[in-house]
Amino acid sequence: MIKFFIKKLRYMILILIGVSILTFSLGRLAPGDPVQSILADIDKPLTEEVIDDAREKMSLNKSIPQQYFIWLSGILKGDFGTCIKSGQKVTYEISRRIGPTIELTLASTIIMLLISFPLGILSAVFKDRIPDRIIKFLNTVNISFPTFCVGIILILVLGVRMKLFPVMGREGLKSLVLPSLTLGISMSGGLIRLIRNELLKNMEKDYVQTAVVLGAKKTSVVINNVILNSMTAIVTNVGLYIGALLGGSTIIENLFGWPGLGNFMIQSIYNRDYAVIQAYAIFMAVIYVVINMLVDMICYNLNPKMKGDPYGK
Amino acid sequence: MAILEVRNLNIDYISVKGVDYSISDINFKLEESKAIGIIGESGCGKSTIAKCILNILPQNVYTQGEVLLDGVNILNISEKEMENIRGSQISMIFQEPMQALNPIRRIKNQFYDLLYTYKKINGKVKTHNLIVSRLEDVNLKDIDKILNSYPFELSGGMAQRVMIAMALIKNPRVLIADEPTSSIDAINRKEILNEIKNLKDLSVVIISHNLSEVYDMCDEILVMKDGVVVEQGYTKDIFQNPNHEYTKLLLQNEGISKKSYEKRVSC
Amino acid sequence: MENSECLSNKKEDNLNNIKVNSHKLAKINKLRNQYRFKNMLFIIGVVLVTLIVIICVGAPLISPNDPLKVDLGKAFLNSTNKYPLGTDQMGRCILSRILYGGRTSIFIALLSLSLTVTIGTFIGILSAVSPKIVDSFFMGICEITLAFPGILLAIVIVGFLGPSIVNVMVAISFVSWAKYARVSRNLVLSIRESGFIKAAKVCGTSNLNIIRYHIIPNIFSTILTIMVTDIGSTILRLATLSFIGLGAQHPTPEWGVMINEAREYIDYAPNMIVYPIIMIFLTVASFNLIGDSLRDRYDGDTY
User: Fold this and answer.
1) Which end of chain C is more exposed for a tag (fewer CB within 10 A), N or C?
2) DSSP label of C249
3) CB contact under 8 A, C266 and A128
4) Domain B78-266 falls in which CATH fold?
5) Chain B interface mutation, best of A202, A208, A210, highest count of B Cβ atoms under 10 Å
6) pTM of the predicted model, to two decimals?
7) pLDDT at position C120, please?
8) Minimal CA–CA distance to B113: which of A207, C283, A81?
9) Phi/psi at B93 (nearest 5 deg)?
10) CA distance C63 to C97
């Protein structure tokens, strides 16, 4: 068991390193001189001395790999720099906003799962019959809309016309409804297809036929043989979908004015606040890695071959 | 009266282009405690007949004819009624026991799945005892260990025995064995065949391409080629005096000549 | 009961034969209808896509007005003769902006995708014919790139490089090349060991020619299928990035940008937001229909 996790851990650390290198490089590639933008507000005349002094402070005169490690060590200590607009530490700004994002992500994930599993299972069990056709049709429509359009449609119908739910900001549980519904519905498109295909693949297997032939009840066959066996493949992909959901949440936060990390990030892009963008990338990578580890743990428990104890407890 | 009778069975695999493959005109009668063998090369339709009897053919298949269980045609009955027949009246064992068992469930749970109704009526303990006794019947040792293990932990012979126990646990009257020993080693093969033979009150349909196996077990034989029965009759007659060219070819290839047959008889 | 007696004498009872055969025919026809329906979907997809592409390419000829012309006096009009779909907050013709926007969206999407596929396939083939270390290195990068949620990465990249259409193309390519690299590398590896490649080598064909004349034609159809199924999602990504202001910049007409601008006036002038949404939906849906049919036909090999 430990071997399995060490392997996964190595993989995850590689991803984090990759993301950190990427973020760092992008930060350097970004247009605009970081020194100029920091010193832009200072009244002092910009003499060579002042500029050099600032460069020294920001370690910009060291070699690139050195700068990377200085930056990395700062990050590992939790120092992501300062937010240009507000003057506060980036870590502080992020901690203020990560709550709403996690709230939104959690709610959307639950909705996505609640929609995808029943519909995917129905679609596979009633293959080519009426339920399947309806679900497939709705699905095709769903994946042809970008996530934010689903949001806008929900806003128009439920928010503006029927005035059921607030469409902006975060005040009370009701305002969570529209954003999480949007993300949940939009992301369920691909997941429904995936679940359906996995289940259908498993229905072709021999042991399903055996169970039927030996007289097991149909529901029992479906649950115990088809669904359970597909779970490993499905759960692995759910991790990827939650990742996509994280990405989509950025946009949805922007659309609904949800005070989360994503919205903050987009504002920071307009303000050219690169420190924030870097921090955002790293945070998202960490969240993503954690989610995938959890997903892998679940998969591991589903698969007896990996557990490796021969004759049961 | 015959337990199982197949009359004028025609099975067509259809596709967009029309009929892809046909199995035509199958007729046989299976009496109590007797055994019928269906032999022929791979792909000639033997397994399809078995699946047809149990009504587990895919959607793109068209069947005509009758399969009579105690005189009642079971081809047109509802799915629910068929569920009651499968396993309890007619049962089947497959060629690859390792593929036929669910790899992520323990053996005991797979048994419990089948014995749903029995468990409801008689409770867990009696069900467990029933399973244990059945597994003993097929000469398995260390039964508790086996029940708690997963299929990949069993050997081929053990797995096939478990399959036989599963197939017979509801006391069906007909057993269809689709190439039951093809993937088993020689020693286990003999033992398993003997175990099947010794099961009383069971009528068996054996599908095989192993002629000596069929010779040992069956009273009657159907020889099939390309979806058609080319020869049919009592085992002794066919082995002694094959009429059709194909039958002769089959027997020749297995090295069963008139002489070797006579040798067997005399022993 | 009557049937069972009749069927036993097939030769004599022609009437029953016809009945039985008509049932069989009915089943065959059912299969045929399913097949025809799928074909129809494909054709609908192709027709719609062609229509949309023609309309958008021909935007300069078809659109009734100049998409950039501002006329504040005529803001927020509903459908009129001059402005068939109405005007936006600056008095610009919505229909013209949609047509020109389609041009931008589809053109940029195709451009990004071509870039992605070229880079990805190139690296994939290169990786497959390189020594194992190089191969593992490239595949490692692929895996890491693929593992991370695409849109997040794209937003971060554009965030750093600055909002512009070119940067969006770069970002989308960076995020999507890995899929094509992996697919083409696997395909090449599986082809490499097959007979006709070995035969070509024996005949003395140079490596470059082998790649040109043998490898590329064989992976072409699979890559093309995957590419078509990706057009829809590329258009969606582009629209999404434009929606949050990172892609096409105003005043360029582009569907995502139009929706973004229409946000403020959502209850006041819903037609500003509804029409671009419908256009995105129709375009992506028709590309998806084509992609799905292609995938059905080629049986979803690798992907």
Assistant:
1) N
2) P
3) no
4) Rossmann fold (3.40.50)
5) A210
6) 0.85
7) 92
8) A207
9) -120, 150
10) 8
